[in-house]
Amino acid sequence: MSAPAVLCFSHLRWNFVFQRPNHLMTRCARDHQVFFIEEPIHEAQGAELHVTTIGENLTRVVPDLPDGLTASQQTEEIARMLVELCAARNVRHAIHWYYTPMMLPLGERLPCDLVVYDCMDELSNFLHAPKELTQRESELMRRADVMFTGGMALYDAKRHQHPNVHGIPSSVDAAFFAKARAPQDEPGDQASIARPRLGYCGVIDERMDLGLLEALARARPAYQLVMLGPIVKIDPDSLPKLPNVHYLGGKKYEQLPAYLAGWDVALMPFALNDATRFISPTKTPEYLAAGRRVVSTAIRDVVEPYERHGLVRIGRTTDEFIAQVDAALADGGEHDHARDAFLAKSSWDDTWSRMQRLMREAAEQRRSPAVAHATSHGTIPERGVHV
Q1: Are residues 148 and 281 in the same domain?
Q2: What pLDDT, on the 0 to 100 scale, is given for residue 1?
Q3: Among candidates 99, 271, 117, 261, which has minimal Cα distance to 185?
Q4: 161 lies in the same domain as 245
Q5: How many domains does the chain have?
Q6: What is the pLDDT of residue 377?
Q7: Is residue 204 within 8 Å of residue 227, measured between CB atoms?
Q8: CA pair distance 193, 189, nearest whole angstrom
Q9: Are residues 16 and 152 in the same domain?
Q10: Which strands form 245-249's sheet, in the order they lie side by side?
Q11: What range does the domain containing 335 cover?
């Protein structure tokens, strides 16, 4: 039998920021037909699916619904169209891969051989989280054959909530970001910005410590803060507006090494709040692979393992953060060898291989008589917790 299709249900759009779902589904498509199913947009007069090929074996699926439908009507329309899509594409066997529990009802009428929950964030702590999310997540964890978490802090929070959960921190394409170490032409919108440059790339939202950014910019007016990424869920007027803070907007993934090449220090100025309690920033190893010195606030999955290995400087207060930026600028980069040795153990290819192995084991357990009997009686057998 050919490999089952993968129906990936995501709250993040493929073209938003290239991050964990993009890296994993790109690799998944080497062996499976992948359908990346996004949340609906509302542009059409009637219900339709926008189905676009974005790579070999990789298809983006965007439901387009008319305004005015209730939540249950939206679910019914999308589910109906997905059933038709699977029939048209001859999808008879499928792995359901969820990034958001809110899309769980969409898979109920679709072929399903395995359920995977890749929990990359504690979404219930995010701004404007749906009130049904916690209940939906409980149901998804009950149904999931295997669960992954995007970092170890999140793993510790979830490890007793599912019998087959694994901490799988995000990885890095080290060779891609290493391009930033080579001399190259500056992107036009960054070339005119003076040095030294302190850079950030990623989503700018409620997880950002705007007070810290402003304090840094005011305390060191000669330092130029370069902010790359879309501004979402917060009022743009709330951002620090100072001559040495430069918002250059979102950039394509392919452009990032050229921008990082022109930074003297890379920043992770995250607030310490509910939204960041369990985050495991993908940009940590990306910054390091680019050869940048890194300063972060005390995000748990940055402190361990990156601070412990001497790869990232941590500022636990505003004054300490500014002092760590000063120290990073004065640093001659003596940790380069340790950095590269650490990153060699953290590739997306290796991460995907590990996840494939765990999925195969979960599929074998699902097919076993004990699992089939327990599932038919609405229970999940104890399978132990693995890391």
Answers
A1: no
A2: 56
A3: 261
A4: no
A5: 2
A6: 35
A7: yes
A8: 8
A9: yes
A10: 245-249, 224-228, 197-201, 265-268, 293-296, 313-314
A11: 174-343
Alpha carbon distances (Å) from 165 to 13, 141, 154:
25, 10, 11
C-alpha distance from residue 16 to each of 20, 207, 252 (Å): 12, 17, 9
* pLDDT tens digits, 97-156: 999 999 999 999 999 999 999 999 999 988 888 999 999 999 999 999 999 999 999 999
Confidence label for 367 from pLDDT (cuts 50, 70 and 90): confident
* Bridge partners of residue 294, in order along the sequence: 266
Q: Are residues 197 and 318 in the same domain?
A: yes
Which one-letter DSSP state was computed for residue 45? S
Long-range contacts of 87-93 (CB under 8 A, 24+ apart): 89/5, 89/33, 89/35, 91/5, 91/7, 91/33, 91/35, 93/1, 93/4, 93/5
Judge whether 9 lies within some domain: yes
- Render pLDDT for 33-82 as a digit per residue (tens, 0 to 9): 999 999 999 998 899 999 999 999 999 999 999 999 999 999 999 999 99
Asked if residue 188 and residue 129 are part of one domain, the reply reads no
Position 140 in a domain? yes
Higher-confidence residue of 268 and 382: namely 268
Look at the alpha carbons of 152, 156, 158, 161 in this order and tell me if their dihedral is positive or negative. Answer: positive
Q: Specify if 382 maps to a domain.
A: no
Q: Is residue 381 one of the residues assigned to a domain?
A: no
Looking up residue 67, the CATH number of its domain turns out to be 3.40.50.2000
pLDDT in tens, 156-183: 999 999 999 999 998 999 999 999 999 9
CB 74 within 8 A of CB 65: yes
Are 139 and 35 contained in the same domain? yes
User: SS3 for 297?
Assistant: coil
